[in-house]
Amino acid sequence: MTSTVDVSVPTTSVSATPKPFTAYHISLRLPLRTFTLQKRYSDFVTLHSQLCSQAGVPPPATLPHKTWFTSSTSSPALTEQRRKDLETYLQTLNSIEDDRWRNTPAWRSFLNLPSTVTSRSSEASNLHGGIPGAGGSQAAADPVVWLDLYHGLKGQLHDARLQITMRDQATAAQAQHECSAQAKKHLVKAGTITIQLEQGLQQLGSESWGREKQLGDGELRRRKDLIENAKREREGLENLLNAMVVKSSLDATISSARDKEKLVGGDVPSKKQHGGGRVLGKETKQTKALDNLGVLQLQQQMMQEQDEDVNILAQAVAKQRQLGMDIQQELAVQNDMLKMLDEDVDRVQGKMDVAKKRIGKIS
Question: Alpha-carbon distance 101 to 104, whole Å?
Answer without folding.
Answer: 6
